[in-house]
Amino acid sequence: MSRPEHGTTLPAYKRLQKLDQMWNEFLSEVPTEERWLLLQTVYTSATRRALLSTLPLTDGGYVADLGCGYGALVFDLASLYPVHIWGLDRNHEAIDACRSFEALARQAGALHPSSVLEFTVTDVTTFELPYPMDVICARFVLQHLREPEKAVVQAARNLRTGGILCLIDVDDGLSLAYPPDPPALSTVKTKLIELQFTQGGDRTVGRKLASWVDQAGMDVVQTLVLPTSRYQSTPDKRTKHVLLAQWQARRKQLIESGIVDEVQFQKLMDQANLEETGPQFNIQTEIAIIARKA
User: Which residues form the Methyltransferase domain (predicted)?
Assistant: First the structure.
């Protein structure tokens, strides 16, 4: 557990600015195969923070983030609110990085001085927390699980009566792009989705969230569709950068699963690097479900 250090406190907006600055610095310093996740953290901060004001966070409240990865949501919450937050993930490397980043963020004054953070390596379908939680969040994690319903049930068990569960995830059936991506980039996306499917994942998980919450005995109190649309008149280098970083990180898994061989992998990487991506109209959609434990 890291305890807060009291001293001069930056305003909330400056703490978030400091946090964003630190993510960019941290990105260049931390070697990891999951670099694409860190890139995504930097590039999606506005979308990630859009829902925070809907969560009933109180001073000293207990909050957990399931599948926290490198801690993007955890650190946003800890920057803004005086809460006690648990970040849970099965990835040892990610949890170690969270702990290192927390020490730096605390020293830089990027976190609320009364926030407390704990990071734990655990399976989000079987986890146990030391206290009943006021709020539990799971963002972009259920799409990767073979048995996501178990994570929802376990979250319900770890909430206090009246506690809130916030689930946010994708549904590719509600996303589109026109004109379509160039051939190699389109194939890279398709192969990554195929890999996710073979590992038990589901890119249409968004439409199923409310049903799982209901089956877990919770009351759905709010449903939200969070579309992000834009027209990109020039090449979208950031999205391409994240995609190809993810492709590189998944090289071994793609080849071992037989989705591509070594020659195909490198050929697609080379071709995708050369392709231009704009102009394009794009809609990416997230589904959010907010539920209360009866």
Answer: 59-171
Residue by residue, DSSP assigns 262-277 as HHHHHHHHHHHHH---
| Cα 291 from Cα 136, distance rounded (Å) | 10
Tokens 């941290």 belong to residue: 26
Confidence at 218, pLDDT banded by 50, 70, 90: very high
Angle made by CA atoms 90, 92, 93, in degrees to the nearest 5? 125
Q: Do 106 and 2 contact (CB within 8 A), yes or no?
A: yes
Statement: residue 84 has pLDDT above 90: yes
E strand intervals along the chain: 62-66, 84-89, 116-121, 133-139, 159-170, 176-178, 218-232, 280-293
Q: What is the dihedral of CA 171, 176, 177, 179, to 10 degrees?
A: 140
| Contact assessment for residue 282 and residue 230, using Cβ atoms and an 8 Å cutoff | yes
CATH of domain 12-172+200-227+283-293: 3.40.50.150
- The pLDDT of 200-207, averaged and rounded, is 96
Amino acid 131 reads Y
Q: What is the pLDDT of residue 122?
A: 98
pTM of the model: 0.90
For 139-196, write each residue's pLDDT tens digit.
999 999 999 999 999 999 999 999 999 999 999 999 999 999 999 999 999 999 999 9
Residue 279, preceding peptide bond in cis (omega within 30° of 0): yes
How far apart CA 116 and CA 106 sit, in angstroms, is 10
Q: Where are the domains of the chain?
A: 12-172+200-227+283-293
Who contacts 207 (Cβ-Cβ below 8 Å, separation ≥6)? 171, 173, 287
Tokens of 13: 């907006």
| 111 alpha-carbon distance from chain centroid | 19
Q: So what's the pLDDT on residue 105?
A: 96
